[in-house]
Specification:
The chain has 244 residues and is α/β, with parallel strands linked by helices. It has a single domain, classed as 3-Layer(aba) Sandwich (Rossmann fold). A six-stranded mixed sheet has the order 3-2-1-4-5-6, sandwiched between helices. Helix 2 packs parallel to helix 7 and helix 4 packs parallel to helix 5. The longest helix is centred in the N-terminal third of the chain and has 28 residues. It is globular.
């Protein structure tokens, strides 16, 4: 009697594990990837980067090329765009000037491109405040999404915010990949300023652009090369059947 009961319990356990396995695999592999761009739209981004292009022109070009490169590897990645300094002129010294320009969505490169064309860099650089807003509003569901941040700027904080402390407290635990900071100024101090956040890439010459884009795309491959979600159909006649 005890032997029969023991076999029955084992059978129930095996069946339970078999039916739970698809749910476990789904939970492990079904997180979607989201990439947030934080873009500097302060007044200094109107300065010339080259003879024919402003810093904001180059930033927009790099941003769109990164999106396009990532889409070529994984069209299911979602992108969003947040700016700072795009609303109030620098003379007002507005330290809450940040906004979400384009929310996370699939295949939204055209929307991002259209929005970039309408942005006028005019304001201050409340970077720490912008990071906190991004944490509260865009990076707020790490149980469902793997997040990555790409930050494009030409300078530092204007509002006495502590960028490093804000990143450590509000951002670091929410992202999957170490952030990349693209610096559009030749000032070597920016590398030291953003060392606490992640990897700094100076883009001061035309040949720096392709290298920066490729570096960022390669760094984000853990988000891009995810295995497909397994669709396991339980069957008692063939328990090894796994459909991809």
């Amino acid at each position: 009697m005890f032997l029969i009961q023991n076999k029955f319990i084992k059978s129930i356990f095996i069946v339970g594990v078999f039916f739970l396995l698809p749910l476990i695999l789904f939970a492990q592999q079904s997180k979607k990837s989201r990439v947030l761009f934080l873009l500097d739209a302060s007044s200094s981004m109107t300065y010339n980067w080259s003879e024919n292009y402003s810093r904001f022109d180059i930033a927009s070009n790099i941003l769109l090329r990164i999106v396009d490169s990532i889409y070529s590897l994984n069209p299911e990645v979602e992108f969003a765009l947040r700016t700072y300094g795009a609303t109030y002129p620098a003379i007002e010294k507005n330290c809450t000037d940040t906004r979400l320009e384009v929310p996370f969505n699939l295949q939204n490169i055209n929307q991002i491109n259209t929005r970039l064309k309408s942005i006028s860099p005019v304001g201050y650089s409340p970077i720490a405040y912008s990071l906190k807003q991004a944490s509260n509003n865009e990076l707020n569901n790490a149980s469902l999404y793997d997040y990555s941040i790409i930050f494009i700027t030409d300078g530092g904080e204007s509002c006495n915010g502590d960028v490093c402390a804000t990143f450590q407290e509000f951002i670091k635990k929410k992202i999957k990949i170490t952030p990349y900071i693209i610096g559009l100024d030749k000032n070597e101090q920016l590398n030291l300023l953003y060392d606490c956040m992640g990897n700094y890439l100076k883009v001061a010459e035309p040949h720096d652009i392709d290298m920066a884009i490729q570096t960022i795309v390669n760094a984000n491959r853990p988000l891009l090369d995810k295995p497909k979600v397994l669709n396991i159909s339980p069957t008692f006649s063939n328990t090894s059947a796994i459909k991809k």
